[in-house]
Amino acid sequence: MLTYSEENYLKTIFHLSLGQKKGVSTNAIAAKIETKASSVTDMIKKLNEKQLIKYQKYQGVTLTAEGIMAAKMIVRKHRLWEVFLVEKLGFNWDEVHDVAEELEHIKSEKLINKLDAFLEYPTQDPHGDPIPNAKGEIKLVDKQLLSEIDINTKVVCVGVKDSSSEFLQYLDKHKISLGTVIEIVDIEPFDQSYTIGLHQHTITITKKIASNLYVKVISA
């Protein structure tokens, strides 16, 4: 049985390792969890003893197969609860992360599987992130960042890189959500700001905003 803290570390290592070919550094883990490096070292020893991670000096931390599966199940619970909160309880997508952080530690596998069935087996959470199924399988979505798309291209929003409440509230303010069609009208050479077509009008967004929106190309 894993403690709350152990689960949080596994989930953090899992997220930090995505797309990485080498291990995750203890400093990166400490920065993400906002704790001291010494605390990370202590936790690494515990997780290593449980055979959930492997640690090599100067090589960083990697999850074992058992550790990956455990992390995926935590992520699965978190994202299913987010779907439930938005679809069934009427929460906004900027409100659910912190609540799901608490609910993800519920141990009942039966409850989570019934929740999955009740929600009709969703494959994505309200932010467009994939939900692992009961076997740990993840259905990836073909996506790019808006900042990687050329002018005169029409795309649809399929996710967000930054899921902070501040960013999501910004998107709500401009009526941008999953499924919103966006057309790139112009990119300003001076500051790389974007003029985008949106709901029959245009707005200007910064490169930072464009670098945090995942999209799928509809037509070019």
Automatic annotation (TrEMBL):
Q: What is this protein called?
A: Transcriptional regulator MntR
Residue ranges constituting the HTH dtxR-type domain according to the UniProt record = 2-64
Answer yes or no on keyword Repressor. yes
A Pfam family for this UniProt protein?
Fe_dep_repr_C
Instruction: Show the InterPro entries listed in the entry.
Output: DtxR_MntR_Metal-Reg, Fe-transptr_FeoA-like, Fe_dep_repressor, Fe_dep_repressor_sf, FeoA_core_dom, HTH_DTXR, Iron_dep_repressor, WH-like_DNA-bd_sf
Q: How does it assemble?
A: Homodimer.
- Predominantly, its location class is cytoplasm
Citing just one GO molecular function, the answer is:
DNA-binding transcription factor activity
Instruction: Supply one GO CC term from the record.
Output: cytoplasm
Subcellular localization(s) per the UniProt record: Cytoplasm
Keywords, A to Z, come to:
Activator, Cytoplasm, DNA-binding, Manganese, Repressor, Transcription, Transcription regulation
Q: What family does the database annotate?
A: Belongs to the DtxR/MntR family.
Function statement: In the presence of manganese, represses expression of mntH and mntS. Up-regulates expression of mntP.
- Protein source organism: Myroides pelagicus
- SUPFAM superfamilies xref list: Iron-dependent repressor protein, dimerization domain (SSF47979), Winged helix' DNA-binding domain (SSF46785)
- UniProt KW DNA-binding keyword: yes
